[in-house]
Amino acid sequence: MPNRLAHEKSLYLRQHADNPVDWYPWGEEAFRVAREQDKPILLSIGYSSCHWCHVMEHECFENPEIAQLQNELFVNIKVDREERPDLDELYMNALQAMTGSGGWPLNIFLTPDGKPFYGGTYFPPEDRGQLPAWPRVLVAVAQAYRQRREEVERAADDLVAYLQQQTRPPLSPTALREQFLDEAARNLVPHYDREHGGFGTAPKFPSPMQLEFLLRTYRRAGAPRALEMVLQTLTAMARGGIHDQIGGGFHRYAVDDAWLVPHFEKMLYDNALLARIYTLAYLASGAAICRQVAEETFAYLLREMHGSHGGFFSAQDADTGEGEGAFYLWTPEEIEAVVGPEEATLVCRYFGVTPQGNFEGRSILHVPDDPALVATEFGLSPDELAHRIARARALLYEARSQRPWPARDEKVIVSWNGLAIRAFAEAGTAFDRPDLLATAERAAQFIQENLWDGRTLFHVWEDGEARFSGFLDDYANLVNGLLSLYEATFDPRWVDWARLLTDLMLERFLDPEAGDFFDTPADGEKLIVRPKTFVDQSTPSGNGSAAEALLRLGTLLGERRYTDRAVAILERYAPIAVEHPIACGQLLLAMDFALGNPHEIAIIGDPTLPETRALLRVVYGNYIPNRVLALRHPEDEEAARSIPLLADRTLVDQRPTAYVCRQFVCQRPVTTPRELADQLGVRIPDE
């Protein structure tokens, strides 16, 4: 019989509905039963596309004997981390404090009042190397709870006290200085993998915030090495197995240094962040591969992760019934059957497909050698090679589509959609792609109509229902997305909504004592600790994203209360961010904006006129990270009232006109792209 999870909205929870484990969803009922039966709680947290979550479910939670033991000794709760990032953050911090590491599945044991006292990640059904068997862990934890209750409860209280202290570390605010940015860049360099690009060793994760910080370093300091590091990383990732060479988009991370073998799940947040950094790198460098990969990633998101309602889905699984990653793997025989024997030699050479394979006897497609070298080997021009590979990719994609597809989690998460809205809006202007811009508008419209009630932003939409009051990163990422959408469309409703969301963010999330933000709203569920993040995880930190949103909105509207709050956050965390740039990339991006004396660009003109578009193209076609942009039609008086940057600006000689201000100083109005480019210190695109 199905357990209590059968009627949950979450795909991940429903995946466990037929387990013999007597799972409860998170809620008062489970805690009441734990108190009444005086049992400890097993809290198990994961997500639908998590490979090792599936492995542990199959090996342990589907095992009747293990499930019976689990039911006898514990009250069992299952949580989808994507639905409840607050619970995941809280108990992951607890696990890391206990063990020094973390990951998913997260299995943590709690007292009946929710205090953690022991935990781990994946456990096998029998002892395996250094990993103890799950049944042995269950028995040992239950015995400790029964026989050493005082010790367990004291340890739990100490851990909670530690977690509470971590939300308000004893920091002394430090005035921001440009030298901080230089120091952070220097501190990032030792983490850089000079051979394969990226940061650290295996497993190798994409680091879009750190790469963007390097782009900003290149722009700010004229440091060519910073740009080289970005391009080396993005090129290596593009050619690696972490990049889906056939369908576009990126897998979650690589288990090796060289980006070859991925964990095969695909997440919306990774692809939104990576599509955007490839777009920015193209603007900064003109590298064709960056534009190509960006547009292929947007195409993937539109084709496979975009709902007919306009919102973006959250994830695609790593597994199918054929096994982990089977959907993406090929043999030479399979390639030949699709493209024909003559073409197969070229395709296998290009994508590194061999008889022995590179993953469980089959091949993960990647581009092991420079395409120019392959073209020379086969006596082809680069254009001829690109054409034949593109034709082969289309055929392979069609053939792959006949395989069993990985499951797709169709929940719509506001914070991740905010990242996508920003990426699509900025790429729409960078690449002059109205279709990408329209996609961003539809996603914002969907959220406004389905996850916003005029006073509260909700976190997730599943099966027609908006659920869970929004978290800090829902507000912050959506505001950043809306500001990018305004700068692409100049529709003032997006600024109006961004302002309202920002005011609610200040009202509901601000810690008045520390001056930064909690992750959860003041009127949200009361947890043992109210979590707070300033360190990036797979997505930008809530405080870092909020600081950037406050700076952008405050600069656009000329509102010091926004920018002052952002600076207070940055001054609080500046020493940590500078010392640990790998962990605090988003805070460094906001710091760069705060210290960068942003360009305030106002354009007066009819946006449909070629002359106005030419002025906009100077802004859109260049990498200008620290700027805000507003536009007013000469006959639109309301725009000037809602956005002060546009007030008292008029046409010069009846021609579309650009006004550039910086650090309280305005330059003379200009009417030509050349004059505007000179004021901004950039080139005229396509020149």
User: Percent of residues in beta strands?
Assistant: 5-15%
In CATH, the topology of the largest domain is named Glycosyltransferase
Tally of separate helices: 26
The level 1 CATH classification of the largest domain is Mainly Alpha
Anisotropy-based shape? globular
Class by SSE composition = alpha+beta
- What is the helix content? 40-55%
Question: Describe it for me?
Answer:
The chain is built from 26 helices and 21 strands. The model has no long low-confidence stretch (mean pLDDT 96). It is of the alpha+beta class. The longest helix has 20 residues, at 560-579.
Brief rundown of the structure:
InterPro entries: 6-hairpin_glycosidase_sf (IPR008928), 6hp_glycosidase-like_sf (IPR012341), Ssp411 (IPR024705), Ssp411-like_TRX (IPR004879), Thioredoxin-like_sf (IPR036249). It holds the Pfam family Thioredox_DsbH. This protein has 687 residues and is α+β, with helices and mostly antiparallel strands.
List keywords for this structure.
4-stranded mixed beta sheet; 21 strands; alpha+beta; Glycosyltransferase; 5-stranded mixed beta sheet; 687 residues
List the helices and strands and how they pair.
Blueprint: H1 11-15, E1 23-25, H2 28-37, E2 41-46, H3 51-61, H4 64-73, E3 75-80, H5 85-99, E4 106-110, E5 116-120, H6 134-147, H7 149-166, H8 178-188, H9 208-221, H10 224-239, E6 253-254, E7 262-263, E8 266-267, H11 268-285, H12 288-304, E9 315-316, E10 319-320, E11 323-324, E12 329-330, H13 332-339, H14 341-351, E13 363-364, H15 371-377, H16 382-400, E14 408-409, E15 412-413, H17 414-430, H18 434-450, E16 458-462, E17 465-469, H19 472-489, H20 492-509, H21 542-557, H22 560-579, H23 585-595, E18 599-604, H24 610-620, E19 627-632, H25 637-642, E20 657-662, E21 665-666, H26 673-680
Helix pairs in contact: 4-6, 8-9, 8-22, 9-10, 9-11, 9-23, 10-11, 11-12, 11-17, 13-14, 17-18, 17-19, 18-19, 19-20, 19-21, 21-22, 21-23, 22-23, 24-26
